Amino acid sequence: MTAVASGATVRPAKRGWSFLAPTILPGFGTAFGFTLAYLCLIVLIPLGHMALRAADVGWDRFWAITLAPRVLHAFYVSFGCALAAALINAVFGLVVAWVLVRYRFPGRRLIDAMVDLPFALPTSVAGIALTAIYAPNGWIGALAKAAGFKIAFTPIGIVIALVFVGLPFIVRTVEPVLQDLDAEVEEAAASLGATRWQTFIKVLLPAILPALITGVALAFARGVGEYGSVIFIAGNIPAVSEIVPLLIVARLEQYDYAGATVIATAMMGVSFLMLLGINFLQRWTRSRHAR
Amino acid sequence: MPADPHSRRPAVGEGPVTRLALIGLAILFLAAFLALPLAAVFSQALAKGFGAFLKGLTDPDALSAIQLTLTVAAIAVPLNLVFGVAASWAIAKFNFRGKSLLLALIDLPFSVSPVISGLVYVLLFGLHGSFGPWLRDHGVQIIFAVPGVVMATVFVTFPFVARELIPLMQEQGVEDEEAAIVLGASGWQTFRLVTLPNIRWGLLYGVLLCNARAMGEFGAVSVVSGHIRGKTNTMPLHVEILYNEYNFVAAFAVASLLALLALVTLAAKAILEWRFADQIAAAKR
Amino acid sequence: MAIEIRNVEKTFGAFTALGGVSLDVRSGELLALLGPSGSGKTTLLRIIAGLDHADAGEVSFDGQDTRDRAARDRKVGFVFQHYALFRHMTVFDNVAFGLRVKKKAERPAEMDIRRRVGQLLEMVQLSHLASRYPSQLSGGQRQRVALARALAIEPKVLLLDEPFGALDAKVRKDLRKWLRHLHDDMHITSIFVTHDQEEALELADRVVVMNHGQIIQVGTPAEVYDTPADSFVFDFLGGVNRLNGVIEGGVARLDGKAVRVDGEVGPNGPAVIYVRPHQVELDVAPGDGVPEGKWSARVSSLHAAGPVARLELDLAGRALEAQLSRDRLSDLALDVGSWCTVDFRHARVFPAKN
């Protein structure tokens, strides 16, 4: 236990800068020390080490690897499909959340519990199950084939897998906000002559929007990195339906450590920038529609 | 059946047609994306009858995969449980500089692709990794072996328990602990007799989610395991191998076991949420 | 046990919660720390309990410095504002907690614990609820459980943080009386924090008025009420008229007429004259002008419910509140719109703040 640890023996704190606010609760040193050590060991050192290995490669090679057409296309597929899936989820996730919060109907609780299935179902299981359904000989795939198009083994398949994976993120972030909405505000809108649709667009949606954007961001971030549920349904055709995580795995299997490291680092960089952007967007909406 | 929360407010709420349409749309969407895959798993597993299903499950490689999955979870979950309790104690009960940075860092594994979560360990401990040669010289194998699988799983499930406990403990504040200490309890007594009972259901909730992910992780584990049958294959990996060998019945048989685990997890989660909503998290109240 | 507090300072970041506070708490007294929120009263209470650490200064119990005594060893009974009852324990287990966590050598036998908890529950009149959980109790009952729990460790000092703050008005009054009786029976040195002046004046042996991290005045309820140390105390103890006047050559004047004031008169300049409503003397207006040294006012509204009548008067454009008995009111035969003369039995004057 470090010196700051035991509240019992803490001397009157010096004024000015202090790391820990005075307290009588014990165990901070132990808990904080363990937390930091474990965090460094499991997360920070391995991730930092990867970034260092990427830096070792050198700028020129870094860009050469990242900007190769196949890699660029994989980025395009990964980010594009993740965005498409997140936007689809924004619409349907909102409908699901709305229905679960606002309406009472038989089976509501069951459905409510089932929304978390993508959190709980291992991704490889989801992957083969979705493939079985959407492959040309599957339940829905056969229907699509009859209609003349293909779902599995195309980017559409990837989007479907990512819709599955991202759904709970949207529903679970929007639900509490919908629950907290003050019904009086809606009554006020109605009493002022707004139609239901006008009320939704002008009153409700702005209140939900920050949470919806958060949900979309979470689903998007998860979708970009998703691997297990996608690789079965994607078909993994280079420059058509190949995603970045798969490319990383492929490079590793060829013992191209530098390639895998560079692509992984670039992907984390891009994800980070996009999340930063979304964060700004979120603050902006929140300040505009401050509740 | 309880009334709609908004039905007592006649001025707001949708008409019956809109209402039915929205409910129908939601159910249709969820059926296509959630129920159908689940049904597919079980129907494919039993496509060739119960015998074939059982054969797929009792295959020695399948049994070894089940055993490895249980072992990995039995190591990863307690580790992250201890971490989660320590982290939430430090973060929720004390005020110190850099707290929000620490919170963000704890969440970091959530936003890292599973594949990268595996890759970082390959780069450290793999044959061509920074410590690879040294480890080889000392006869220690981490990558393509069980320790690597455990490490990748720990990384991926790292934030789960902490993420559940931190908001819960923040909301509970420090008054209970202060009361216990003024009454003469030691630090350990305070934690055991006051804090732990206050967070027990939230803790169980976090462990449940952590365990589901630990047993189901695929991407990270796939990178570090090397897919050695009977040795480093977990259940999700075994599913992939069988599937790629066109052994669909066996693949879906193992998959159905994992799907069952997911359903049990969901049921337990729902029960916790209904019965102990206020003791799980402030936000779910 | 007596408590001496010497020059205690405490800051939270840029905020000064306590700026060098000294106070002697007498053994066996019931002391109120009274002040608005942010005045430092709760911080002082927590420092005495050992829940917070002072930046400077010392707190001693019967002459012994407490700095190296951790909260758990101070033998202080603390009743938290929101009670902090352990919700997974029954009422009985809550009260027994402090006895059960004692070191093996000091811990009473389980039978003695039962007996002692039984006595305490009887004292707080909750024996019949021993096996209930805190969530099944009313606010007043929780409050009494918290008190019994604090008393179980036989504290030398009892500290109560806003003990009645979370209760509704009726329960609050009952509990107040009950707490006073309890204190009279047990004579434990007790300190309670409150922002309710009525509660402090009614319950405490002595009142400590605090503001901005400073002690403004210490005294019996009668002392602080009748001779407030400054305008803040006057204001905070409630029910006061503030009339803008001036000080000229050591005399306070209102509309040119001298006001008899108690205590010091400050330097020349604008001043505020403080007078409590029941110190306003009214009389029937004589037909011919205003008598020497008195003022004239018109009744603008009148509330006569209960034994005391409250009048709002217009004194040359200023609102003035007066209180008098119903009998006196009927003697004067005042009504809305009638004129009367005004005098002040007791008043104080303080220089006006800009």
From TrEMBL, chain A:
GO CC terms, sorted: plasma membrane
Key word Transmembrane present: yes
Keywords: Membrane, Sulfate transport, Transmembrane, Transmembrane helix, Transport
InterPro entries, A to Z: CysT_permease (IPR011865), MetI-like (IPR000515), MetI-like_sf (IPR035906), Sulph_transpt2 (IPR005667)
Gene Ontology molecular function: ABC-type sulfate transporter activity
Residues of the ABC transmembrane type-1 domain: 75-282
Subunit structure: The complex is composed of two ATP-binding proteins (CysA), two transmembrane proteins (CysT and CysW) and a solute-binding protein (CysP).
The family this protein is said to belong to: Belongs to the binding-protein-dependent transport system permease family. CysTW subfamily.
Role: Part of the ABC transporter complex CysAWTP (TC 3.A.1.6.1) involved in sulfate/thiosulfate import. Probably responsible for the translocation of the substrate across the membrane. Part of the ABC transporter complex (TC 3.A.1.6.1) involved in sulfate/thiosulfate import.
Entries under NCBIfam families matching the protein: 3a0106s02, permease_CysT
Full protein name: Sulfate transport system permease protein CysT
Species of the source: Nitrospirillum amazonense
Automatic annotation (TrEMBL), chain B:
Annotated GO MF terms: ABC-type sulfate transporter activity
Organism for this UniProt entry: Nitrospirillum amazonense
Name of the protein in question: Sulfate transport system permease protein CysW
Domain ABC transmembrane type-1: 66-267
Transmembrane in keyword set: yes
Assembly and binders: The complex is composed of two ATP-binding proteins (CysA), two transmembrane proteins (CysT and CysW) and a solute-binding protein (CysP).
Reported function: Part of the ABC transporter complex CysAWTP (TC 3.A.1.6.1) involved in sulfate/thiosulfate import. Probably responsible for the translocation of the substrate across the membrane.
PANTHER family found in the cross-reference section: SULFATE TRANSPORT SYSTEM PERMEASE PROTEIN, SULFATE TRANSPORT SYSTEM PERMEASE PROTEIN CYSW
Location(s), subcellular: Cell inner membrane
Cellular component terms per the entry's GO annotation: plasma membrane
Annotated membrane topology: Multi-pass membrane protein
TrEMBL record, chain C:
Source organism, top-level taxon: Bacteria
Record-linked InterPro entries: AAA+_ATPase (IPR003593), ABC_SmlMolc_Importer (IPR050093), ABC_transporter-like_ATP-bd (IPR003439), ABC_transporter-like_CS (IPR017871), Mo/tungstate-bd_C_term_dom (IPR008995), P-loop_NTPase (IPR027417), Sulph_transpt1 (IPR005666), TOBE-like (IPR024765)
Gene Ontology cellular component list: ATP-binding cassette (ABC) transporter complex
GO terms of molecular function: ABC-type sulfate transporter activity; ATP binding; ATP hydrolysis activity
ABC transporter domain ranges (all copies): 3-237
Keyword Membrane in record: yes
Record carries keyword Disulfide bond: no
Alphabetically ordered keywords of this record: ATP-binding, Cell membrane, Membrane, Nucleotide-binding, Sulfate transport, Translocase, Transport
PANTHER family to which the protein is assigned, alphabetical: SPERMIDINE/PUTRESCINE IMPORT ATP-BINDING PROTEIN POTA, SPERMIDINE_PUTRESCINE IMPORT ATP-BINDING PROTEIN POTA
Name assigned to this protein: Sulfate transport system ATP-binding protein
Species per Swiss-Prot/TrEMBL record: Nitrospirillum amazonense
